[in-house]
Amino acid sequence: MSNFTLPDFYRIIIDGQQKQMLKNIQEITDRVKQGDQEAFRALVETYQQYAYSLAFRILQNEEEARDAVQESFIKIWTKICDFRSSQKFTTWMYRIVTNSALDRLRALKRRGQVGLDQIPEMLVRSNTLRPDSQLDNKEIAHVIRILAGKLSEKQQLVFILRDIEGQTSEEVEQILDLTANMVKSNLYHARNAIREKLLTLSAIERRTI
Amino acid sequence: MKDNLKQIVKELRRNEPELREPEKLTEDIMLAIQHEEQDRSSLHPMKSSRLPRLILLQRLLTAASVCLFLIFGIEQYMVVDKVNQLENQNRSVTYFSYAQFASRITRSGIPIAELQKRFPLRKKFLSVATGLTMRKLNINPQYNKK
């Protein structure tokens, strides 16, 4: 009998699936480069949820996030020739989505339309601190806005990409075009600021109790 | 507090924003792509038909700019030439006035040698002016000495 354990077995299956997926993505992007719209549809169907998640977490607004995703996929279609197969598609896509979302966020800030519909911080906190709670889009938006709303643009993006989206540091570097040290320092400051925010919130909560 | 942050981050990561009506978004994107393609294909023949005209325009503009440079060059040459002429004229006028001055001196009967003694610094000027005057008035240089 071989010494295969169950986790090894799962790892082999997952590795195999990932390799198959990567192969599929490469095939799809190659076809898209040749102008195949059906392949592009498959690409959109596979990745629009990921793109939407990121755009929503940056913009904290459903409509704006949808528009940012649409804009990003149009850019992907027109710039697919720039995509090299040595790159990871999701990293390349995230870079485009981040830029589109950021442009929209800046436009919203210029128009003063950010943070108009804020609900009380305590209401959000009592909902979110419960483990395994199900949050809807509005609650997610408010939690992110309360925690990361006061951060600088870079700190906010690094926090969202690294901690919430779960990207690796190298991927964050590529997406935001930052150095490793810049990613580290932005993440450090972002986490510290959020911890301070949480401390303030818990102090307020204790006082009210 | 570290655990609290971790807990919130974990919750946020687990609660992924829900994309409502994903099919509609896909369709919107595909429609936008088709529009993009139509725009691109409608622009393409126009571009190709415009190309020879654009090349012609480019060459005409190049020729025009060369002509302009030539015109500016000629104009500049003419201006410099005129300035030179004026300078020469001015110089001759000055010499003439020197000559007039010198002729007045000669008419007063003071010998040139005497003047040269009195104004040693103006020696060169006096000699030039006197020579010119005499040549112009057709006077014999020996006249004063006599």
Q: How many distinct folded domains of chain A?
A: 2
Uncertain stretches of 5 or more adjacent residues of chain B: none
The largest pleated sheet of chain A is described as:
none
Quote the beta fraction of chain A: under 5%
Summed up:
The complex is a heterodimer of chains A (209) and B (146). Chain A has helices at residues 6-33, 37-59, 62-79, 89-111, 121-128, 137-148, 153-164, 169-176, 180-208.
Keywords:
heterodimer; A: 209 residues; mainly alpha; Rna Polymerase Sigma Factor, Chain: A; Arc Repressor Mutant, subunit A; 2 domains; 9 helices; B: mainly alpha; 4 helices
Helices and strands, with pairings:
The complex is a heterodimer of chains A (209) and B (146).
Chain A: H1 6-33, H2 37-59, H3 62-79, H4 89-111, H5 121-128, H6 137-148, H7 153-164, H8 169-176, H9 180-208
Chain B: H1 2-14, H2 22-108, H3 112-118, H4 123-137
Helix pairs in contact in B: 2-4, 3-4
What does this structure look like?
The complex is a heterodimer of chains A (209) and B (146). Chain A has 209 residues and is mainly α. Chain A contains nine helices and no strands. The termini of chain A are far apart. Chain B has a domain at 71-146. Chain B contains four helices and no strands. Chain B has helices spanning 2-14, 22-108, 112-118, 123-137. The mean pLDDT of chain B is 77. Classes of the chains: A mainly alpha (209), B mainly alpha (146). Chains A and B meet through helix 2, helix 3, helix 6 and helix 9 of A and helix 1 and helix 2 of B.
